[in-house]
User: What shape does this take?
Amino acid sequence: MRLCDKITYMPDKHPNHNRLYDLASAQAGYFTGRDATRSGFNSWLVDYHVRRGRFERVGRGLYRLRNFPVSPDGEIAAAWLAAGAKNAIISHDSALALHDLGNVSPSAVHITVPRSSRWRSARSIPGVHLHTTTHPLPPEDVIVQRGVRVTTAERAILDSAQRGLDPEELARVAKEAIERGWTSAARLKRRAVRYGARVERLISQSLDRRSS
Assistant: This one.
């Protein structure tokens, strides 16, 4: 499921529970202090609902609607929000998992952030593997999937190859992405050149495995 980018709202002057629910439900039940402010909840009111058991404090400036159904994507959404949703992008193995490609089961949530924002994003976020980039990812490499910003399947395959994804798994995810029409063998080979000889070789070998 591919979702539209999050709608930009003007802050409410009074608590708007429906609006906060809409924001949180698009993020697996999680919301930030900024989301709460935009929905008319000041810090005192957020603390009040935490004490009453309606909200659960997950981390600094990060909350969850306590009764919201648990989602398999909850850990990813929480990590993405904690890293700073404005600049953070789910990437590498975690992006493959969000796209339901192969049998990837990352031991950490992989997130790419601008190098300039690493100091903020690296604040003791458990279970997160940060990747930094000196240049913003091209818009065509980023989509919104299940409520979070995530690299496209094509970009995730190349990034995961660079990181050292198992060749058999790499062949599997490439095959599935091509069958779904999300990329092509020609595009993967062409883009792999920019990643260097090792990734170019891995991608070529994976595509050969796919066709054998």
Summary: Confidence is low (pLDDT under 50) at residues 1-7. The CA atoms of residues 20 and 39 lie 6 Å apart. The chain has two domains: 17-65, 74-211.
